[in-house]
Amino acid sequence: ICNNKIDVHAHAAHTTFTDIDICHLPTPESVLARYDQAGIEKGMLLPLVSAEARNLMSTTEQVMDIAKEFPGRFFFAMGLDPRMMGHSVNADFGKLIEAYKALGAKAVGEVTGNLYFDCPLYDNMLAQCAEHDIPVTIHISPELGWSYGVVDEPGLHRLEKMLKKYPKLRIFGHSTALWAHMAAGTTVEDMKKYPEPGKIVPGRLWELFEKYDNFYGDRSANSAFFALTRDEENGLNFLDTFQDKMMF
Q1: Model-level pTM?
Q2: Rounded CA gap, 55 and 31, in Å?
């Protein structure tokens, strides 16, 4: 049973295509059935709007409609990609952010556009998220072209650059590539797969959570589960040390 009654990372769609792709979105009814089993009160539905999200395209309007259909059980985030609004480093995201906030959106994400974290397009979008006081859920990817997700190398120095540059921007970190940094010595290959069980030396994530008040951990998927359970002693220590930074 989950002690935290709010899930900050869920996906759902009324139409799924299980017969044409190995990845598909669950129906809202199936998500709620799992919530009832786990004692979760409500969850935030995240759109997927980047081309790199494969066939799993899900718009803000679609998740907003599902949230309206199940009031009290779902709320929603807005989908943004830095190439929207004219594919320009001067694109104005402010009006769009405020319009979706007025409709009830509580966050931005899941952000999956496969560009470098600190590239000018992301810099522009994240600056405006900070200005308009909206948190952002980021899916990290280890390479350009490898998969969907914002690109950072081992060590997560591009993430740190953005955390430092925009201290008012609350970033929820997500994905195997991010959670691989529970352990020291993380490589690109480590960022691409779930870890093997075994003892670890605490790695980069410990440093980033300690150093930046605006950085939070999205632990709602297998990526976080396997990272936190590979070394039970260190995983429990991490959760105890950063309990105020862990989102579920």
Answers
A1: 0.93
A2: 19
pLDDT(2) > 80: no
Asked whether residue 196 carries a pLDDT value surpassing 60, the answer given is: yes
Average pLDDT of the residues in 86-94: 97
Of 199, 44, 202, 22, the residue nearest 136 (C-alpha): 44
pLDDT at residue 24 tops 90: no
- Nearest-angstrom CA–CA distance, 66 and 52: 23
d(CA 191, CA 213): 24
With residue 85 as reference, give the H or E element that holds it: helix 84-87
Tokens, residue 103: 């409709």
Q: Between helices 222-229 and 232-241, what is the axis angle to 10°?
A: 110
Are 5 and 37 in contact, with CB atoms under 8 Å apart?
A: no
d(CA 208, CA 178): 11
| Average pLDDT rounded to a whole number, residues 79-96 | 97
Q: How far apart are the first and last CA of the chain?
A: 13
